[in-house]
Amino acid sequence: MASSTNEPTVVRVSQKGQATIPKGLREKFGIETPGEVFIYEAEGRIVVEPVPSPDELHGIHAEGHERGEALERVRELKAEEKRREAERTDRLRPSEDE
């Protein structure tokens, strides 16, 4: 019996912070495995979105998007991820007073 993709599913998070996206959701949203997703915070929630393939991005300019908008968003997300990682590293690094 297949479950609806609208029903909440409990997913285990590993010690490395890894979680598996349920198969039904991967199929519904076209997330390939192996593959990549965007993950970010919005309105107090964690959001996971598929990274568009080059084929999906083809013609993006004709749909009212500025040139390079998708690439710029990817760069912003990667920069934010690096900033958070640096903050986490700073918090975990012992201070010189210790």
Automatic annotation (TrEMBL):
Name assigned to this protein: AbrB family looped-hinge helix DNA binding protein
SUPFAM superfamilies, per the entry: AbrB/MazE/MraZ-like
Xref: InterPro entries: Repressor-like_regulatory (IPR052975), SpoVT-AbrB_dom (IPR007159), SpoVT-AbrB_sf (IPR037914)
Organism name: Halorubrum trapanicum
Domain SpoVT-AbrB as annotated: residue spans: 8-53
Stretches the record annotates as Disordered: 79-98
GO molecular function annotation: DNA binding
